Amino acid sequence: MSLSYVVAVPLAALTLALVMLAAPVSRAQEAGAAAGDPDRGRVVYRSVGYCVSCHGWAGDGKAGTNLQEPVGPNLRETALDSAALVEVIGCGRPGTPMPYHDRAAYRDGRCFGMALDDFAPGSEPVRGKTFSDRDVANIVAYLEAYVIGRGEPTFVECTEFYDNPSAAACATMD
Amino acid sequence: MNVKHLMVGLAAAAAAGSAGMAHAEVTPERLLAAGSEAEAGNWLMVGKAYDLNRFSTLDQINTSNVAGLRLAMAAPIGGSEPAGFGIGAMQATPLVDNGFLYVSDPWGTPYKFDLSSGDAARPVWVCDTGIDKDPSQGILLANRGLGLSGTNVITVLPDGRVVACDADTGDVVWDVQAATDVGEGFTNSPLVVGDKIIIGQSYGDWATRGWIAALDANSGEELWRFYTIPEPGEPGSETWLCDQTGNPDCWKTGGGAAWVAGSYDPESNLTFWGTGNPVPMYDPEYRPGDNLYTNSTVALNVETGELEWYFQYTPGDYMDYDEVGPALLVETVIDGEERKVMARFGRNGIFYTLDRATGAYINSVAYVGNLNWTEGIDPKTGKPLEYDPESALQTYAMGAISRAGDVATTCPNIQGGTNFFPTAYNPELGLAYAGGIEGCSDLSVREVDPADVTPGNIFIGGAGVNSGEQTGSINAVDVATSTIAATLPTTYAMYGGVMASADLLWAGHMDGRFAAYNASTLEELWSMNMGTSFQAAPITFLVGDKQYVAIVGGGLGVGGGLAPELSNMQAANMLWVFALD
Asked: Above 0.90 for ipTM, yes or no?
């Protein structure tokens, strides 16, 4: 499997993007190349990270989001490939509320060759829950198997997501 | 000894255990007298008395000796299971009657503790409401306290039920599904008045329509209901220009939730409730107009539920400035005239005094350090100077936000100023107190198709994000003159309540510090960091003849978003009780 990827650029940080483009290929991306377990990925998306808060249970930024942050991009319609997903989950999107989850993000250069100190005070990337490399791969596998390109979410998808046929969150769905 | 004699003996022992005081029924008469000397040792309702002044005359603990305060009792409380918005913060004001303390957790479950020993908070019962703690529910968990009614302890639940528990046994006496529409529920506390329990639907931002209702205290049967958003044809409906949007039903999901219990004036038999923001909070193009009766105080006749008067603070709001915060009932002298006023700290950063009988505006003063959304308040109408009654969409001083992409920064923060936070009034000093937030928010609109709006799912129509650093303050306002008497800046946003006792003011901080201040100067006289985030109001009471102070602490909840540096604080729900040696 190829280890060379195009580095995805956070659109909100154009200045930063110039630095990123010059950065070496990250180790986080390499780790993500391993095939993940989509069912474990769903558990991580639901219960380990705070993904639902911004992206909603269905990844569309609707049901399940909360008041704390702006709603996240619609992952059901994302154009990101596996490598880009690994990078965004691991390194976050500096300049946006998308947090980083890689245990060594911004410590050993794996994220755009940058450290937290390289960012202006107040503009550092947001720290999220720490995922193992395997769990990053698991979430990517989950998104690719159950979310990306899947159209409008369904009641069955909702009950499967919450692993509960009578989950309250699904009660208002058609 | 036969069984009957044994039971009598046990009852006598129990009575002796509570310092010889009888476990009396909480009658309507006792509730009317909750602020009197006869009930000075108790705390019978969340606001201490119907005026919500949260003022105690107990003065064993005072400025001269509070430095010697120590932790006397502590007990864990349950309810830290998360819902979709995470673990709820502990926001309940405990109640105390004759040495027994009643408090609720964020899921509304009531607990009773026996404090009569003075050295341990012994659990007596946990009332099992049967609440379904389904973590998929996309709701904000909170419960702001219980009500005492006769021999019952009343709780309101996030699933829309109201439950009466027997005060002696903790058994469920009655259980009614008071809120029946999808998305409706309760986060506040009930207000017990006479033979009625007054409740407020709390989940406005979940695309519902707010209401306030009275239940029969003996059965839970609904007696009247007042919708905070009028339906077409009713007075006030002309302020919902839904037809202009192509969605004539926009009022049905218009919010205006009543998520903090109101005050009550026995003389006029009026209850004063605050209402929440119009929904969606950031997209006025979804619901053009002034949006009555959102962001208002409504004065309702307790017997009939009829609207006596209303005052809307921020018409056509797009800053999320709910005005649910407590309406303090105060008697004061303004310009040489004795006045009965309703005084309150607005979430919009302004302290208002209104005439209690008519709702007429009297005076106001900005109490936050940075307020940019209005140039000031019209001294005749009490409305913001920018308010244009002819306009479908208001533009306040910091500029409009729009679907076309206009963004703005509003100060104070969308969460206030103050918020649901319990406030207090010391009648001896003439000072009203509140803790609050000092900061600003960046606002933007995100258009949502009406077809995608589903009651029960959060519906905000945009974003309000912290703009720069958020700190806090405690303010003391002289109600008679509408002037700031003292301000204490705080490191973190204040996200809980205050309590006034004799010459002290008490407040818990988000970082776990609980503190006592000089009531006149706000100089800190004592503090102790308990490690649990404080978002509730303290109380003070007697066990026997000794004064205690209690407060509950727990997780950060939504308030934690104002202090990211505290995010590692864990949630452990606790009751803390303090005393002098």
From this structure: no
